[in-house]
Amino acid sequence: MPQAVEVSTLNPCLDRELLAGEIERWLGRDSIDARIRIRVGEAERVPFFSIALAGQPRLTRAFPSPPRDCDDQRRAIGLSIALAVDALSEGRHGPPPPLKWLLGIDGAVTTRLPASPGIGGSIAASLAVLPWFRPTLGAFFAASTDQDLGRDLPVRFETRLLAMRAEACFVAHPGATLRLALAACAGTFLGALTTVAAGLPDARTETELWAPLSTALELHVRLTGAFGLHVGGDALFPLRRTQVEVADSNGKIAAERAFPRAIVLVRFGPTIFF
């Protein structure tokens, strides 16, 4: 990056190496199109920069009222240069950026299912169709074992969730840096809820359709070009409320426990970019 930047001012706030580092930080990478040249200078004590592509001037911008603090001044000018470089690199003057796939693998913890929390995980693939839009398709599993219905009953049961997930995610980059991405998602899960009973002579296993609507927030941190980490929180809203029941010998309900109207899911794991 420093090779692409030329500074023609004695302003100590616009040190070439420090300014190049600021541009790299905003871009999220340490290299740019080899045809791009950046010139930073001052005219009548007003900082400005100009960008040329393949020797042809493309953009000039001045800062009539720059921040007084040197760090803030470098951040402002570095951000402006980074946005301009991205526009030149990805616009009509260069090849379009390739579509990017993201593969997320995570462990998950849920709220009650329905007596105690569940543990599980998910895997999901997203396609960055646009910088701000990613359709996502994946699979989710969670289980909560050794649950009870209270009332000192000897009945224990286990619940399992297994589902596909389809979501539309809208993405923003906080601070205009490509290393951070915040996604808001909405969609649905479609799968099965299985309840396995124990402690009864005629204990049964029952499976039913499970299809909640979902909303989610995700934060992605890109550590290298191909690897990052993510953390996410989901709220799942089943269309039909389910409950676990135990009947006595006369067929009357002896105990029951209903699933919550909403299930909250917290996820964390690695992201692979390709």
Strand and helix map with partners:
Elements lengths: L4 E4 L7 H12 L8 E8 L2 E8 L2 E7 L7 H21 L9 E13 L4 E12 L4 E16 L7 E17 L7 E19 L6 E6 L2 E10 L4 E11 L5 E5 L5 E6 L4 E11 L1
Parallel strand pairs: 1-2
Antiparallel strand pairs: 2-3, 3-4, 5-6, 5-15, 6-7, 7-8, 8-9, 9-10, 9-11, 11-12, 12-15, 13-14
Helix pairs in contact: 1-2
Describe the structure in your own words.
With 274 residues, the chain is mainly beta. It has two domains: 2-90, Double Stranded RNA Binding Domain; 100-273, Porin (Beta Barrel). Helices cover 12% and strands 56% of the residues. It has helices at residues 16-27, 70-90; strands at 5-8, 36-43, 46-53, 56-62, 100-112, 117-128, 133-148, 156-172, 180-198, 205-210, 213-222, 227-237, 243-247, 253-258, 263-273. Strands 5-6-7-8-9-11-12-15 form an eight-stranded antiparallel β-barrel. Strands 1-2-3-4 form a four-stranded mixed beta sheet, covered by helices on one side. β2 (36-43) and β3 (46-53) form a beta hairpin. α1 packs across α2 (70-90). The longest helix is centred in the first third of the chain and has 21 residues, at 70-90. The protein is rod-shaped and about 95 Å long.
